[in-house]
Amino acid sequence: MSDTPNTDTDRETRADYNSLNTDAMQWLSALVALIGLYIVASPFILESTEAAIWNDTLVGTAIFLTAGYNFVRLSRDRLASVGIASLAVLLGLWALISPSFIEMGSSELATGTAISGAAVALISAYNAYANNKADTPEQTRARA
Fold this sequence. Notes:
The protein is mostly helical and about 140 residues long. Helix content is about 70%, strand content about 0%. The chain has helices at about 5-15, 20-45, 50-75, 80-100, 105-135. The chain is elongated.
C-alpha cells in the first residue's frame, strides 16, 4: 500500500463529495414557500393600505411560486434552479425594503413584511449558493 492518497477512488467512495442533501434543501424551499404565503395573508389579517395589499399579495405569491418550483425540482431528485432561487432572493430583498417606499398602514405589517423578506432573501441565497456548488445528480448521488 502506498502512502499517497488516490483522489479518484476517494472521490468515488465518498458520498459527501460535492453532493447535496436535497431533503434539507427541499425543507428550506418549503419554508420559503410558507413565508411567501404569510406575506400574502398578512395584509388581510393586519391593518393595511390598498397599496400594501397589492404589494404583499403580488410579492408573496411570486415568492410562493418560485420556492414551490424549486421544491418540486428537489422532490424529483434534481437540483434547485439557481436562477429561480436568485429571483426569490430579489423578491425577498424587495419585501425587506418595500415598507420604506410603500405606506403599509400599520407598523406590525411593515415589520412583518420586512422580517419575512429578510428571511426569504437569506434562505434563498443559501439555497442558490448550495445548489450552484453541487455536482449535478447525474455525476454524484443527489441525496446524502
